[in-house]
Amino acid sequence: MHLVNTVSNIMGAKMHKSNFIIILLILLPFTFGYFGYRKRDQHMWAKKFKLCAGKLQSPIALSSSKSIPLALPALEMIGYHDLLPLPVTVENNGHSVTLNINRNISRNQSEIPYIFGATLKKGQMYEMESLHFHWGAKNNRGSEHTFNNVRFPMEMHIIHKNAAYSNFSHALNNQDGLSVLGIFFQLQEQDNENLKPILNILSDVKWVNKKKHMNSSITLSSLMPTNTDTFYTYKGSLTTPPCSETVTWIIFSTPVKISFRQMNRFRILSNGEDMLADNYRQLQNIEMRKVFVRWLDPLSVLKYNMSNIDFTDSKFWFWH
Question: d(Cα 49, Cα 242) in Å, to the nearest integer?
Fold first, then answer.
């Protein structure tokens, strides 16, 4: 309803046609559940969103042997050990289950978690927007990225917006607009107790467009792998339309544990027609991009003066 009112107001104000189309293309993918994950559906994404056929698309196949080891700065995660500001809303949007935080808080009440460092633009911080999951109908698939030819049963994305931009739509139009943390999940026999606050609410959002506030908050650190010192990073895109190529990906190779029983809890969700699962995009060509791995072994790290590297320079990220 809010989207309809927004569009009506835009049309009523007789906004220039091209501007209206741009705004509509940004809003539709996150509001209308019309794009699918079947192979034919994914092939059609580029028909409606040209960027989905771009040269910097995600996800990609990550390889430890093909990545360039560098003594990169650490990724600093501020507020990750604090409870997320309430209310935390869990929603089934037909494509995934998402956790959205309360962003209408004053700085003296609570702090929105943010990140900086690694290969992110120097002097700028990236605030958390939301997180969501991608998983498979079977345990041999589900993650969007692969690591050393392994596809994990689930992958979590924590989306961050460059705080220099006023809103998410603005960030989508800038090369340094977004950073997404990618976390793999690996199966084990025992339950992961840290996942229970999320899993306990999934039955309440089984159906499309259902949402509910969590009864208690969680910390992002409880959802993170034990080793965050080593990560892979590259320039890419959103993995759903409009496939904006404005994402600095930071992906941890150490997975988080999840039990078989807990994995099945995600598979009770519905996408409106069938079981919500296999909601992952096909691997994209890496093209001329470089993938870097933060590695602290001095014998294997390339000798760069990291203090002089401009991470916004395309020469750093691409082969020439």
Answer: 6
The per-residue pLDDT for range 101-142, each reduced to its tens digit, is 987 764 445 589 999 999 998 899 999 999 999 999 999 999
Q: Which of 303, 233, 292, 248 is nearest to 69 (CA)?
A: 292
- What beta strand segments (E) does the chain contain? 61-62, 68-70, 75-78, 89-92, 97-100, 114-117, 126-135, 146-147, 154-162, 178-188, 211-213, 231-236, 247-259, 292-294
Catalytic option among 2, 16, 95, 213: 95
What is the distance between the alpha carbons of residues 17 and 150, in angstroms, rounded to a whole number?
A: 46
Q: Is 95 a catalytic residue?
A: yes
Q: CB-based burial of residue 307 (10 Å sphere; 0-12 exposed, 13-18 middle, 19+ buried)? A: exposed
- List of residues 6+ apart from 94 with CB closer than 8 A: 33, 208, 209, 271, 272, 276
